[in-house]
Write a sequence for this structure.
């Protein structure tokens, strides 16, 4: 039985391997023009997010890891993509920002202050970042206190 993706393209082990190799190749490339790294990084993030729309979960995770490994310099491009892409690519962009953690909060707040349509997204992502930084023990203590008090 053949498996098709959302665009009715047959998914085979070979196509998965090719997509993975392309992602790895692009991930190892340096910026083409050191004087214009902003343009190159923007195109690179755009390419990876486009690829994320049509791949399986394993490759999507690999793409996300690649973006996260590039660090905070990708955040402005990821924020811009949140306002333009849909579906899996949007989720990947948001999750990459969340995984980069607290260092992204100021960029999110700054963008939200200038872009009203982005406020709700920024609030959601910031809440996710803050929530992931609370130790599980805190939740367990709160639950225990409620159970003992009740």
């Amino acid at each position: 039985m053949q498996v098709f993706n959302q665009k009715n393209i047959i998914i085979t082990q070979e196509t998965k391997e090719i997509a993975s190799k392309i992602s790895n190749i692009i991930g190892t490339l340096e910026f083409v023009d050191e004087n214009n790294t902003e343009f190159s990084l923007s195109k690179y993030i755009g390419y990876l997010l486009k690829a994320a729309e049509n791949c399986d979960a394993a490759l999507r995770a690999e793409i996300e890891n690649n973006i996260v490994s590039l660090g905070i310099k990708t955040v402005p491009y990821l924020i811009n993509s949140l306002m333009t892409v849909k579906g899996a690519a949007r989720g990947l962009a948001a999750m990459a920002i969340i995984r980069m953690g607290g260092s992204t909060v100021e960029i999110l707040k700054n963008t939200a202050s200038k872009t009203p349509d982005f406020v709700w997204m920024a609030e959601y992502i910031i809440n996710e970042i803050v929530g992931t930084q609370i130790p599980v023990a805190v939740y367990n203590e709160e639950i225990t206190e409620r159970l003992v008090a009740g």
Observations:
- Residues 3-149 form one domain.
- The CA atoms of residues 1 and 37 lie 45 Å apart.
